[in-house]
Design a protein that fits this description.
Elements (H helix, E strand, L loop, with lengths): L18 H24 L3 H13 L4 H7 L4 H13 L3 E5 L7 E5 L1 H22 L4 H21 L5 H13 L4
Antiparallel strand pairs: 1-2
Helix pairs in contact: 1-5, 2-4, 2-5, 3-4
């Protein structure tokens, strides 16, 4: 029988205390609240709204660039963009410089929908942030920036999980 390894950090975290779980729950609550408006009103799923947000913010962009900006799988982005085009919210155009690239931009109708959804999303976020003082908001922004930088540094490799476990295993060996 092999001995169980202690969890990294020495103490197991209850599900409710895990960083990713807490972020996921908070994000899901915001998305569900906003989706109750944009789903029925504009016929959009969350993947379409996320794609529209990336196109509205960074456009003109390719579908590959949309994927880089949001946390949605490429096949879902393709389907979302197809629905946005069908609804008249997004147009596809061949890039004048790189003719292999298809650029996505919002139509005027898409721009109105994007602005409406962004307005509601911002109102929901501001409502949540009311629970924090000005200094807590600044601290949260700094903390999130640090976590995003660290995630970019240590989690963007293909098998980053393997490197992290190897590092933890090496640190837990006797003589360290």
């Amino acid at each position: 029988m092999t001995a169980r390894r202690p969890p990294p950090g020495g103490v197991a975290l209850d599900l409710e205390r895990r960083l990713t779980y807490r972020f996921s729950i908070l994000s899901a609550k915001v998305v569900r609240t906003v989706a109750k408006m944009y789903g029925p009103k504009y016929g959009l799923l969350p993947s379409g709204w996320k794609a529209m947000a990336a196109i509205g913010r960074y456009g003109p962009v390719s579908a590959k660039e949309v994927c880089a900006h949001i946390t949605v799988e490429p096949d879902k982005v393709t389907r979302a963009v197809d629905r946005l085009v069908e609804r008249g919210y997004v147009k596809r155009e061949q890039d004048a410089v790189d003719r292999r690239r298809v650029a996505l931009t919002l139509t005027s109708a898409g721009r109105k929908v994007y602005e409406d959804i962004e307005f509601l999303t911002r109102a929901v976020e501001l409502e949540l942030l009311r629970a924090l003082s000005s200094e807590e908001r600044k601290s949260l922004a700094r903390t999130l920036a640090k976590l995003e930088d660290e995630a970019g540094r240590c989690l963007d490799e293909k098998e980053s999980w393997r490197r992290i476990l190897e590092k933890r295993d090496a640190a837990s060996r006797p003589g360290r």
